[in-house]
Amino acid sequence: MAAALVMVVTIPLFGGLSDRIGRTRIYFWGSLLTGLSAFAGFWFMKHSDGSLLVVWLSIIIPFGVFYASVYGPEAALFSELFDARVRYSGISFVYQFSGIFASGITPIIATYLLQRGGGEPWLICAYVLFAGIVSALSALWIGRDKSRNLANAVVRERTAI
pTM to 2 decimals? Predict the structure, then answer.
């Protein structure tokens, strides 16, 4: 709940920041930080020496701040991938498809990795980092594709005149 309360402030903050400096840039760095924060969060929890504050912060910061940097620009970034006439259907398909095949099997994967890791969370952290890297690389790809499409549109507009 505390992380969700922090997100009430940070999601609009990162959404607004993405309007000013670019959605793909915020999404890229947010994905990497979120992926890396799994290692730091679990390390701090393991070495908290019983400090409830350390445990809380190791949950609140990754979810309330770093994940919000992905979640804030996500809706606008994804919807901009589709032409306006198919945007609702396109984003709905992507969102539902990823929910089934990515989010839906994550608990199974995490359980397997926890067992393989002997009860230690480090393989799960590696999985989270892998997902963060894939998301960051996808943001780079989206950014390059959008730049190329914008450049092609400018060329078409100039040749049409």
Answer: 0.81
